[in-house]
Design a protein that fits this description.
The protein is an alpha+beta fold. It is built from 24 helices and 16 strands. The protein folds into 3 domains: 198 residues, Aldehyde ferredoxin oxidoreductase, N-terminal domain (Aldehyde Ferredoxin Oxidoreductase,  A, domain 1, 4-Layer Sandwich), CATH 3.60.9; 184 residues, Orthogonal Bundle (Aldehyde Ferredoxin Oxidoreductase Protein, subunit A, domain 2); 190 residues, Aldehyde Ferredoxin Oxidoreductase Protein, subunit A, domain 3 (Orthogonal Bundle), CATH 1.10.599.
Length: 627
Amino acid sequence: MPFGYNGKVLHVDLSSGDFDVEDINKEFYRTYMGGSGLIGYYLLKMLKPGIDPFSPDNVLVFAPGVMTGAPLGGMCRFAVGAKSPLTGVFGQSEAGGFWGPELKRAGFDAIVIKGKASKPVYIYINDGDVKICDADHLWGKRTGEAQDIIRAEHNDPAIRVAQIGPGGENLVRFACITNELKHFNGRNGLGAVMGSKNLKAIAVRGKRQIPVADRQLMSEISKEFGAIVMENPLTRGLYENGTAAAVLGNSAAGILPTKNFHYGEFDRAESISAEAMNEKILVAREGCYACPVRCKRAVKSERYSVEPRFGGPEYETLASFGSLCLIDDIEVIAKANQMCNEYTLDTISTGMTIAFAMECFEANILTKEDTDGIELVFGNKEALLATIEKIAKREGFGNVLAEGSKRASEIIGRGSERFVLTVKGQELPMHDPRGKYSVGLAYALSEKGADHMVAAHDTMIASKDQFSFKEIMPLGILEPEKPTKFSPLKVRTFAYLSMWWSFFNAAGICDFVPVPRSSMSIDDVINALNAFTGWKTSVFEVMKVGERALALARIFNAREGFDAKDDIVPERLHGPLKNGALKGSFLPKEDFMQALQLYYGMMGWTENGIPTKEKLLELGLEWLVEG
């Protein structure tokens, strides 16, 4: 019998209402593991090049990883993938919470969905039993109400619901998917793909135990990690302040995106910091399945009717609705976060698209006549909230912004394109590469568009004295490099860590648990994988899993016409920061382009950024070469 996984993938055809189960062997799991690796496999197998992302022909894949559901902190993640309506290329986004482990407890390792239902539906999975249920009565409802109705219909408050709100139904190109109202597959507009298929939700209930090969060893690893969570500052800080801890640190370092990336320091950063959240609106520290870190926040605001059930703003949200838009009110940001959670909008792209519009307004490219009477200036709190509402409903000017900043600029014209900060059509996250050069490589090289979770950031491994640097040395990273420097060492380090983090994605492991971001050692990660599955794997094998997943996504994008010409960052990042500790600093363009070419060579890709035939064969992807 398999351990750690079920060996079954559920296929659903929404057009016909049919479904079947595919049996998968151990070799498949060791090759792709799940997550992005499994998504890349099915998208390349099932999708023809050039399809419209909103076509019924698009395939939507929900994919936990091999480690998802293991009784150990951080083993909770699942990925969702499809051709992205925001970028037009490989779309994939991860989430934590409880939905991924619940799907495996219900008997399936992944769901592959094609077609389009003739009317709104949701999929209900209960211990292997699959039903397609009517969702007419749910369409148009926000997430909280929809989840309550689904659970009541089946008389089971423990059902885990992954769903879209009106933003996904209205095909906002950066709509996301939420589970438990507070965990998100946030980027790439995958919620809009669900909406295009008339799929409101996937509700899952599983009572089976996921089989563990060596339960005693798994228990020992779990206890060891639980014991160090409060001792290690990397994990203790996540418990105490969550990701919001980055606000003050990044502002002091001059790399907190402020006023649409013109500035790196926000003079009111204290007002949107973790400390402000803890003092004013925090009501609970929460977490994901089996995880003692508990980095999630639950907040409440009487002034803005913010409810704890929708969680609380992460760092990315605090920055995208805060410093980026010059908003200094933590309760307004919490309200904006809850609105996005109810409507299912990605907070990064929402904040970036609104900041783009604010800069257009400041430059007199837009006026109140264009924005439905909203004075869309930086710092206008009520304008921020009103614009989020309009985007989700695609009302008036919100219909333009719902296309994302790149497409919105093409509609607006008049020179607005110079204010667009995207890579491959996806808005930048809240990390400024002018102070962390590897983040610039991550933005440019990510097959999904700008993404800060492609590899470890430079600052995590900048000194030999850091715990995170010492613990990452078994990967062959033996010397640190300055965050603001390009060198062969910097590129090699980025390459190794991009494979390591890609493995996390495929395996269903949270980036906030293993080194270098957190405190679980490389040995414990590998030992846990072996204890859960019964395999005898190694660092070498899992690094190849990560590299393979990167190659699959790269080949998918090449089929869609994307290559090295698309591995660029916005020109604004090659220009100087206007304030802060790094005032005058910029991402040197010539050095950056040389680093990209060096990375291609190290990865076995052509000068055009495409994996060679030899590399595909080395990765065991003969079917791509033969096809």
